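Let's do one together. I've listed all components of the complex below, 227 residues spread over two lines.
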Amino acid sequence: DAKTTQPTSMDCAEGRAANLPCNHSTISGNEYVYWYRQIHSQGPQYIIHGLKNNETNEMASLIITEDRKSSTLILPHATLRDTAVYYCIASNNTNAGKSTFGDGTTLTVKP
Amino acid sequence: GAVVSQHPSRVICKSGTSVKIECRSLDFQATTMFWYRQFPKQSLMLMATSNEGSKATYEQGVEKDKFLINHASLTLSTLTVTSAHPEDSSFYICSASPGLAGWEQYFGPGTRLTVT
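Okay, and this is what the predicted structure of the assembly comes out as:
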């Protein structure tokens, strides 16, 4: 897996968009960007993934830069229940599942 | 969506005993499942890859004789912590992928093991 770098922590006001950045400057052409989150004392939850194009699902949007060296996870209207540790992972299908979790970003949504 | 369950959710055992943790994919088949361990305030660490019908592949530093993995079917993998010691107390999490549109992982809710 390519190394990823994320800020240690971020705060966001409830109802506002939360934008979580991730740097993956050494990502290779066949590596996808995956985002997961882990709420305290629970198993991680898959959020979204992408290769080159921006992606959107019911949970979030993923914006990947054209050079693929960084990406941003967007939670459009953060709620208190979105408070969690968010992990960005770059991985290819050969290593499917052998995800290397870094320290992630602790997002705190405040009322 | 894909659902993975784990049982038990919490277990307390005495030092020297063995504990078995089950991981099930409820609505998809998984040739491969993964076992992670997470200590307090730390990130997840991959322990081993569980392969249906064959031996598990362990990460460096993980004792295969202590952490026995059996992948009996396409929907069930078990992790047995043998001769548990207090330092084995941790949060154990499994994951699996349906492997259809991508290789996103779906994680179980985790098992909190406390060895006294």
